[in-house]
Queue: 2 jobs
Job 1
Amino acid sequence: QVQLQQWGAGLLKPSEPLSLTCAVYGGSFQDYYWSWIRQPPGKGLEWIGEINHSGTTNYSPSLKSRVTLSVDTSKNQFSLKLTSVTAADTAVYYCARTNYASFGPNDYWGQGILVTVSS
Amino acid sequence: IQMTQSPSSLSASVGDRVTITCRASQNIYSYLNWYQQKPGKAPNLLIYAASNFHSGVPSRFSGSGSGTDFTLTITSLQPEDFATYYCQQTYSTPLTFGGGTKVEVK
């Protein structure tokens, strides 16, 4: 049974960095990409980026200048850092597994963390 | 790649047949997935690669299409199916989602 558990600060001030981590339990860590997806309150889903076990990344062009994904294979964890946050970055942030062996769906998701940016 | 879902919302009754469409701005072959999301919860994968069931998904859900036009069908709507549904293309990065279709009680 694959489980993703995520954590990080839920309340930030403008210009502070956002930092979230996701731990993967069960299944293989090496055989998948690991993604971050966010959802502003009342809105749709936005893909942030993905990383694999060797550190290969793909980023959303709209966030690329502010996003860094990293991976710790010794702990089966991956992390998101987003710099210089504004109110527009207020959203529920999800981590998810991307299964490119099956045409790339996000087949397992973390529970989500609401990150609020407010002064 | 832009993903356009329609309708953005619909009202239906238990037992109804419901169809949601998703159109891609370019050919994505079969790299199309469908998710169901309930309030306060993470999305759940229903269908991957346009027409394949994710584990545990009831058979009343089905997906079809290829290229640019795709459909999610619920053959007999159940009370637990009232939710928002999203399509997603995974043909190329940046991966993109449709805007969502909210299925509400009529």
Job 2
Amino acid sequence: DTGVSQNPRHKITKRGQNVTFRCDPISEHNRLYWYRQTLGQGPEFLTYFQNEAQLEKSRLLSDRFSAERPKGSFSTLEIQRTEQGDSAMYLCASSFLLAGGWSSYNEQFFGPGTRLTVL
Amino acid sequence: AQSVTQPDIHITVSEGASLELRCNYSYGATPYLFWYVQSPGQGLQLLLKYFSGDTLVQGIKGFEAEFKRSQSSFNLRKPSVHWSDAAEYFCAVGINSGGGADGLTFGKGTHLIIQP
């Protein structure tokens, strides 16, 4: 399968614990995005990387959240001291961006998501 | 900041009937517009996108959408729905900040129910 993969698919944790999610993008894609989706809402942008550089962070990304993409391939999203409000589906997407801006190659391909439940 | 409004939370359509899902956006310039579909347990799948040019765009699965600048709308249409079209549909807007695409802003979605 050459799509975006995310692990784990489901995570149940207790309030106050730390959790880490992994995203493996499509192999040749240089951009990687993280979104959060709560019940009944559309996805909300959290952050994105171009190669290993984190270029933008939403104000939704509190200090308890940290994302990395150390080698420009897979990415991890860590949530420290989880709260019940962190319960959501965390989506990862990747794209290939040609220099110069938007192109048909900049379609974002989404993974199946990691569903987090904080008890 | 840009925003997207999908005024219909739920829509019920009979199988074989036509469909139109509404999307309005707010942005100071011409945005880049997308429609995604999300089925239970599946990732978001791109149906179609508008960057520039012809305001009527064709997508996959028989869907089309029309960009109307005067109405700030990008409504999704399908002439005849199938039971397999039952899903959640999201309209999204993206902007080009000059260095390429940033994150997308999504609407809250429209849940499509197909009646037999």
